[in-house]
Specification:
Helix content: 25-40%
Number of helices: 8
Mean pLDDT: 92
Distance between the termini: 29 Å
Number of domains: 1
Shape: globular
Number of strands: 8
Radius of gyration: 16 Å
Strand order of the largest sheet: 5-6-7-8
């Protein structure tokens, strides 16, 4: 995923990454699902001196022009991020992860399945991750082989139905606790 930001995109009131994502660096440790201790009601309280991880991370909404304003995480219930680990052979070197924290509503949004289709059609390892309870890592699944054939046939409704089933199954997953 490219790292240049789309011009004009600012976090504004979105603090989804400050709550949803796990962070485990020497400077900052934050468990998933718990608001960062440095986040206030209008964003980062240490913005000018924030940690390197916070300075360099930009969600997909910031870097992918194909994701419009409705994809901003606080509106969509989804954080899109690059993924470098666990990429199976035969795919591009970098994958993409759609971390759903907004429930089934986020999965059912009309632009969701077509966005997945674009990445899967480009041979990008495309993951669906479901937020666990606070303090637990998300559960995820590689979608390419699971819904790829529905998307190749252009059957977006079938793909969406399959995504809902996958979401419901993953939501019952035993999540790993961040220690």
């Amino acid at each position: 995923m490219k790292t240049e930001r789309v011009p004009g995109r600012e976090c504004g009131g979105c603090i989804a990454c400050c709550r949803v994502l796990p962070i485990d660096t020497p400077e900052l440790r934050k468990v998933p699902g718990i608001l960062c201790e440095h986040c206030g009601t209008s964003g980062c309280t240490i913005y000018e001196t924030r940690f390197p991880i916070c300075r360099t991370y930009f969600c997909g909404w910031h870097t992918l022009a194909m994701l419009d304003e409705d994809w901003r995480p606080d509106k969509s219930g989804i954080i899109v991020s690059p993924r470098k680990e666990d990429i199976p052979a035969g795919y591009q070197a970098e994958g993409i992860e759609f971390l759903v924290f907004g429930g089934e509503r986020a999965i059912r949004r009309k632009p969701f399945a077509p966005a997945l289709a674009a990445f899967i059609g480009s041979n990008v390892a495309t993951y669906l991750a479901i937020s666990g309870p606070p303090g637990y890592f998300p559960a995820g699944v590689l979608l390419n082989e699971v819904i790829g054939s529905s998307l190749e046939r252009g059957d977006i409704d079938a793909a969406r139905d399959l995504l809902v089933k996958i979401y419901r199954s993953a939501a019952r997953h035993t999540f790993a606790k961040m220690e």
